[in-house]
Amino acid sequence: EAFLAAFQERIDAEQKIEPNDPMPEGYRKTLIRQISQHAHSEIIGMQPEGNWITRAPSLRRKAALLAKIQDEGGHGLYLYSAAETLGVSREEMTEQLLSGAAKYSSIFNYPALTWADIGAIGWLVDGAAIMNQIALCRCSYGPYARAMIRICKEESFHQRQGYEILITLCNGSDEQKEMAQDALNRFWWPSLMMFGPSEGESVHSQQSMLWKIKRFSNDDLRDKFINATVPQAEFLGLKVPDPELKWDEKKQGYDHGDIDWDEFWRVVKGDGPCNRERMRTRRKVEREGAWVREAALAYAEKRAAREAAARVAAE
Amino acid sequence: EAFLAAFQERIDAEQKIEPNDPMPEGYRKTLIRQISQHAHSEIIGMQPEGNWITRAPSLRRKAALLAKIQDEGGHGLYLYSAAETLGVSREEMTEQLLSGAAKYSSIFNYPALTWADIGAIGWLVDGAAIMNQIALCRCSYGPYARAMIRICKEESFHQRQGYEILITLCNGSDEQKEMAQDALNRFWWPSLMMFGPSEGESVHSQQSMLWKIKRFSNDDLRDKFINATVPQAEFLGLKVPDPELKWDEKKQGYDHGDIDWDEFWRVVKGDGPCNRERMRTRRKVEREGAWVREAALAYAEKRAAREAAARVAAE
Amino acid sequence: MAEDQTLFTYLLRLADDHLILSQRLGELCGYGPTLEEDLALTNISLDLMGQARALYAYAGEVEGKGRNEDQLAFLRYERDYLNALITELPNGDFAQTIVRQFFVAAFMVPFWREMERSSDETLRAIAAKASKEVAYHLRHTSEWVIRLGDGTDESHARMEEALDALVMYTGELFETDEVTEAALRAGYAVDPKSLAHEWQQTVDSVLREATLTLPESGHMQTGGRNGLHTEHLGHVLSELQYMQRTYPGLNW
Amino acid sequence: MAEDQTLFTYLLRLADDHLILSQRLGELCGYGPTLEEDLALTNISLDLMGQARALYAYAGEVEGKGRNEDQLAFLRYERDYLNALITELPNGDFAQTIVRQFFVAAFMVPFWREMERSSDETLRAIAAKASKEVAYHLRHTSEWVIRLGDGTDESHARMEEALDALVMYTGELFETDEVTEAALRAGYAVDPKSLAHEWQQTVDSVLREATLTLPESGHMQTGGRNGLHTEHLGHVLSELQYMQRTYPGLNW
């Protein structure tokens, strides 16, 4: 108990917790779950965008998309490393992803059907992610907070890029505008769901707040996102697909319509449009890469043995 | 010797040899080689055309192409059956194809690069094949001759269809005409090679003639093909890519330039543009279909066992 | 929606089902597990193509804007294709190809039979021809379902996997919406909901003989009828449309 | 051939090599055998794309008809692409992807180094940047060739198969024709034949360390420089060109 109190004191004093510091098991577990889930989201998130690499409509956009997906893979790497500092291996985390034990952000279970979706994913999905991540830059766990700072910088770049794709479409032909509106229609609600349901009095969430793993409630972050995004949609000349959306002068923010939490839970539980596809693809990649990883390992071992033998011979 | 003479007498009397008739081992072997090679050609020949099914430019052409390739598979089936009457199994023949021991027509080692190639394959490749096959309709071996009669009918339909594709292109835009000319440029010489080199005094070939497996020399068939085809090219407004091609009033036929037999032998020996690809594809199909064939066999056995058991129980 | 527009959409959905499934089977031409099966699948692909052509031709007539079968089949945007999702799914292994075709054929058999009583003469004519063809599709695929289900351990496992992967795309076949309902009121359409029982019986009885069971379906995927597809369709279209898009406005 | 036309063709061949190989690697993005390798291959794809863009932009300038990089990259017919065949071959398994890239990088390293002495300023500038990038491509792929060759029995066998499948596409890299020869006379080009010895040495020394040997090459495949491709290119283009063909003349 004294340990827990001392730990909480450090947290309250805004001291960063570092890998070798003592920490409560619950803190460690919560972080492992959250960081690995975040890492998995980066990895699975490569799939919907990857679907458009071969068909990107210009060389410039193709290069930007390749670079963006590469960044996501890079984020996955930092995050896996941050999680590893908490005593879990990448193999374990991968195993949890493939077995379905670990989750990833449900937004990636929606398909990227048109080029405008690549814009919408950058603008809305990365935009929503950033709202979460900015808060996490001040997370109490040092390695996570530092990974977030780096990630946030790249994500805002991606978000601007996505928005820029939509600006181009909205300044383009009627078909292009329609394509942009259609993408907004499909990605708006799932983006709002990215913040998760209202927490109410969730004990889990309160503990995360206390430990400063989480600093804002889901609803607060969602409102911030809506307030930032609606004017951007207006600038594009697109209509947010929520007839109940309206500006509330008093709270200086938008009121929005009800979110379909049935859909949210359905997708979380595996019945979204692409859940099975995403996992099937990931498992296939792991399976087909197995011989390569084995070969790399075998070579490393041979090499180490040869070097050891050479050292012995030299002595 | 008496047997051989009697056999030759039957041949000379234009009697058909049937599966259960006695026949010289050389006759049997020659026929097995020739018929199975012919069957393999039908099967491998499905690949270059198959390359255009998903991209055929109209529904009508797509349906015709599907039907054509299906016919080729059907021809493969009749021919394998005809060869089986000579005491070789389809498995053995397939094994010979996959191991490279058996050959197939070298023309199918050239790629089908544009839609016009589908026209050219029908017009020239099927056209050349028909020249050979018409002669084979009178082959001394009954099952082969009868298979050929059926095949010839379908092949002439294919040839007309191919020619009709080119008529459409040649009545079309400049790009289409260019595409047609390009296809003729690439398929002309390989089509002439389909008849094989001049036989000179080849003993092998003389024996085939004597046995009435073969009825015309390669050069005669090639000349017939050229004489039939050049006017068709002229009708299309296309230029046959042979600067030495000219009408010989005396022989009432065309003289043609030298055929690059080095290329022919190179492709026969495995170094054509697609030899490896064709075999790789065929082997992959066999490999991936193995579990299906095993399952079908296992089911047939189970079923037979059940029926036998039911019969026993009923007795 | 104007009546003609309803009929046009109704026909387009049906035509797209047939075109896209035919295109998928066409990918396999030359690559069947046996030569005989190669021919059989190509046959099915050809039947579907024939049905698609008749439906597009009629749709073009109903639309009255002079679009022919090729313009309708090749020159629409991805979001304008209205096929059911199951028709666009990749061929996968032979088990998946067979299960996909079996599920569709088990639906199309009663569908075309009922359509033979349509108030629309052209649809009746199309149905009369299609009924015979699809009976063969169902028989052929049923035989394979049984053979593979009751074949080896491997084939049984592959069939289970295929059923599991595809069952969630079957619900869409039975959906209705304002288009179907308007079409039903007009008298030329078939109510897909009325076919569900027969479909279930067909599937159950074949699977039983195959020593397989249909997995619990859970949530059914949907979207195709409104142009909301899987990520696969775009790739199918990039090949399908290649020539028509590259060389616009030519005859072939 | 006018001088500008020669330079244009020379640039286009080089640009197409880079575009098509980049497109092939792009197919793998998200599907690497390890996350690190996924990033590395995407990196190479990006480098190649950057080189392609610089080359197309310059080609468009030389041509002087106002075509930009996208018009050149996306809006030509299949027979007008001039890339070497090796760049369009399917990714195959990871061994094939690596061997293909290794063969090309072992050529591009001396190529770009020599190009730094081109009489053409723009080509010199492109070469200066590309030289650094391609040195990494060669290092990275060499390491994998060694790892896989000297790894497990399976990886060794796969590498042998990959070498066997790809060696016949390497000869084309060293070919010259009237375009190359005119370009050489003009002073801005690199003579590919002069790079053959270094390529062979690089390949031999890496393969030796990998316990592999280069198979007898026999007849070398050729045709790409004149637009005579494998059957694979058309399928690559149907995806590459999809958007530009479907929505002509728009900005993206």
What does this 3D model show about the protein?
Chains C, D: It comes from Hoeflea prorocentri. Chains C, D: Pfam families: PaaA_PaaC. Chains C, D: This is Phenylacetate-CoA oxygenase subunit PaaC. The complex is a heterotetramer, with two copies of chain A (315 residues) and two copies of chain C (252 residues). With 315 residues, chain A is mostly helical. Chain A is built from twelve helices and two strands; from the N terminus they run H-H-H-H-H-H-H-H-H-H-E-E-H-H. In chain A, helix 6 (115-136) packs antiparallel against helix 7 (142-170) and helix 6 runs antiparallel to helix 10. Chain A is globular. Chain C is mainly alpha-helical. Chain C contains ten helices and no strands. Chain C has helices at 3-27, 35-63, 69-74, 94-115, 121-149, 153-166, 178-186, 196-209, 232-240, 242-246. In chain C, helix 4 (94-115) packs across helix 6 (153-166). The relative contact order of chain C is 0.15. The model of chain C has no long low-confidence stretch (mean pLDDT 97). Classes of the chains: A mainly alpha (315), C mainly alpha (252). Chains A and D meet through helix 3, helix 4, helix 7 and helix 12 of A and helix 1, helix 2, helix 3, helix 5 and helix 6 of D.
Task: Write the SSE topology.
The complex is a heterotetramer, with 2 copies of chain A (315 residues) and 2 copies of chain C (252 residues).
Chain A: H1 2-12, H2 25-44, H3 46-50, H4 59-84, H5 90-99, H6 115-136, H7 142-170, H8 174-193, H9 203-210, H10 218-236, E1 246-248, E2 253-255, H11 261-271, H12 275-314
Antiparallel strand pairs in A: 1-2
Helix pairs in contact in A: 2-4, 4-7, 6-7, 6-8, 6-10
Chain C: H1 3-27, H2 35-63, H3 69-74, H4 94-115, H5 121-149, H6 153-166, H7 178-186, H8 196-209, H9 232-240, H10 242-246
Helix pairs in contact in C: 1-2, 1-7, 2-5, 4-5, 4-6, 4-8
